[in-house]
Amino acid sequence: MNPKYIMELHEEYRKRCLNLQASENYLSYIVRRALSSDMASRYSMVFDAEVHGVYVHNVYGGAYYQEEIVKIAENLAKEVFGFKYVNVKPISGHVAAMAALLSSTSRGDKIMAISPQDGGYDGYSSNYLPEMFGLKYVPLPIKDLRVVDVDSIKREKPELVILGASYILFPYNLDEVLEICEEIGARIIYDASHVMGLLPSGFQEHIEKCDLVYGSTHKSFPGPQGGIILSNNEEMMKRVERNLTWRVQDNYHTHRVASLAMSLDEFKPVAKLYGKRVAENSHRLALNLHEEGLEIKYPPEFSKSHQILVDEKKLKENFGLTPPEMSEILERNNIIVDRVGRIGTAELTWKGYKENDMERIAEVIFLALKGKDVKGDVEQIVSLWNGKTLGEIQRART
Ligand SMILES: Cc1ncc(COP(=O)(O)O)c(C=O)c1O
After folding, report:
1. 16-45: burial string, b at 16+ Cβ within 10 Å, e else
2. Structural element, H or E, at residue 127
3. CATH classification at residue 290
4. Cα(163) to centroid of ligand 1, in Å?
5. Parallel, antiparallel or unpaired: strands 342-344 and 18-19
6. Separation between Cα atoms, residue 52 and residue 276, nearest integer Å
7. What are the helix and strand counts (H, E) for the chain?
8. Could you tell me the CATH number of the domain that includes residue 169?
9. CA-nearest residue, atom 10 of ligand 1
């Protein structure tokens, strides 16, 4: 098949789907447009220092507007997230994690991070980043995905504690972790990949006290695929800059930075409203699914983030399904969720769907799992959307 048709087919297909994938979001036209702009094939690398014995401002020519857009993105990110220092260069959340780890540890250090069994990011477990950077990994025990066992930190005395996870429903007991880390002289960094879009509405109180906050720009935050690093610690951010260029990456893709600037600009006026609605939608979707019989973990709160988690044991008991089987049945009905039991509300919230819509969506999910063909109902729910994101609606008003 001609590759160009694949793009069209994919877009037509995804337009017909209800996307409830927790790691994804929707990009408005202007945010996408930047990704296919001329910057997509250009370089820019500002040094203001000697490179191979000669002083250079930028290693490449023709980069005036690229330099401008980086400054604009950085300033917008400072405003949106409320940190003094920002780095928009990491080309992904994982690359941001590499730079954050390199900047906060030395070879041989002990690090503690939430284990994949408790929903932690696989990249932090022994044989991935810790092995690559010569670090000793110790799992950070956590109860109900939210209460970190601070005594274990006191006992283990790591040089670094990493908070944040791929399954993240609630804020952590960060104040206690900060206190213990200060007592034992450990650094603390926060992987906010999943909750980046929820930080401006206060998802995690006192996050600004962490040495580094970093993550993806495309999960709950409605930006292009990429990464970002935030901090109030100037020294740490100088290290981040040193560790990014020619260590974990070279070119940082200025079309992506331009796209990020567009998304930050669009997001800024509605950041708080969006975060509040994401949490409301998650709670309502969870409550309705739970009441219908698709049991959701951690009742009665269920979630304060953009994700809810299906109770796998009850899914098997009540529907005879595993999470991948559930996902496949829903996919056949144009409802997209991942294969690991997470259901996400970020994209639908960014598209303006509210609590009442969640009630209907829960009903349709339930019917699909009971074996009914709900493609027609999904089509109807999808057609409710007016094609504008929350940010675009706000911009049209002002
Ligand atoms: C907690 C966490 N950190 C980092 C990553 C990697 O992010 P990216 O896909 O942007 O590289 C993920 C991926 O899902 C994640 O869940």
Report:
1. ebbbbbbbbbbbbebbeebbebebeebbbb
2. none
3. 3.90.1150.10
4. 13
5. unpaired
6. 51
7. 16, 15
8. 3.40.640.10
9. 93
Match 């973990």 to its residue by tokens.
Answer: 297
**Pairing verdict, β 187-191 and 160-163:** parallel
Dump pLDDT digits (tens) for 232-268.
999 999 999 999 999 999 999 999 999 999 999 999 9
The backbone torsions φ and ψ at residue 3, rounded to the nearest 5 degrees and listed phi first, read -55, -30
Is 284:359 a contact under the CB 8 Å cutoff? yes
* 287 and 330, same domain (yes or no): yes
> What's the rounded Cα separation, in Å, for the pair 228 and 213?
8
In a domain, 317, yes or no: yes
Range of the domain at 361: 269-397
**Residue (of 317, 312, 286) closest to 299 by Cα position:** 286
Residues 235 and 275 in one domain: no
State whether the beta carbon of 263 lies less than 6 angstroms from ligand 1: no
CA 190 to the chain's CA centroid: 12
Q: Is 165 in the pocket of ligand 1 (CB under 6 A)?
A: yes
Q: Give a yes or no: residue 50 inside a domain.
A: no
Query: Of 166, 203, 225, which is best to mutate to test ligand 1, by the most ligand atoms within 8 angstroms of its C-beta?
Result: 166
Q: Which of 381, 294, 293, 298 is nearest to 334 (CA)?
A: 381
Under the banding of pLDDT at 50, 70 and 90, the label for residue 4 is: confident
Query: Whole-model pTM above 0.70?
Result: yes
Q: Which of 351, 347, 227, 261 is closest to 79 using CA atoms? A: 261
Place of tokens 């399954």: 167
